[in-house]
Amino acid sequence: MLELWRRLGRNFNEEYGIEVSPTPITAGETVTVRYNGTLAEQGAKQITLHAGYGTGDNWEEVFDVPMTKQPDGSWTAEVAIDTDSQFHFCFTDGKSWDNNYGKNWTYEVHNGLNPGK
Question: Which of 16, 57, 62, 115 is deepest in the core (most CB within 10 A)?
Fold first, then answer.
């Protein structure tokens, strides 16, 4: 199943219940973040994607996106990626956080140009 997701341009981290699609991320695309981690497993009534852009541990342009619960119990949110900086995110239910043990999740964003051409 994981190999199928990779062929479809998706990145799934089974241990944490995170899927980002499409990957790799290119500036100008809209990505879907699917979450089925700890907060979902604990029966959260609402989950918010807390996200931002930046490099390293620096978050800029921080924003929140309410997630939508899916029939399979996972939660999804769509984000228009309008920068070629890194895309950082974590999740909250308003009381607790799932932030990858303080490391958050970070994906590189490519500018869509083919180097060397």
Answer: 16
Q: How confident is the model at residue 114 (pLDDT cuts 50, 70, 90)?
A: low
Peptide bond into 71 cis (omega under 30): no
Average pLDDT of the residues in 24-39: 95
CA distance 19 to 28: 19
| Digit-coded pLDDT (tens) for 36-80 | 999 999 999 999 999 999 998 889 999 999 999 999 999 999 999
* DSSP per-residue codes, 7-25: HTT-EEETTTTEEEESSSE
Domain extents for the chain? 2-110
Q: Supply the DSSP string of 15-73, one letter for each residue.
A: TTTEEEESSSEETT-EEEEEE-SHHHHTT-S--EEEEEEESTT--EEEEEEE-EE-TTS
CB 50 within 8 A of CB 64: yes
Q: Which pair of tokens denotes residue 12?
A: 């799934």
With H, G, I as helix, E, B as strand and everything else as coil, classify residue 105.
strand
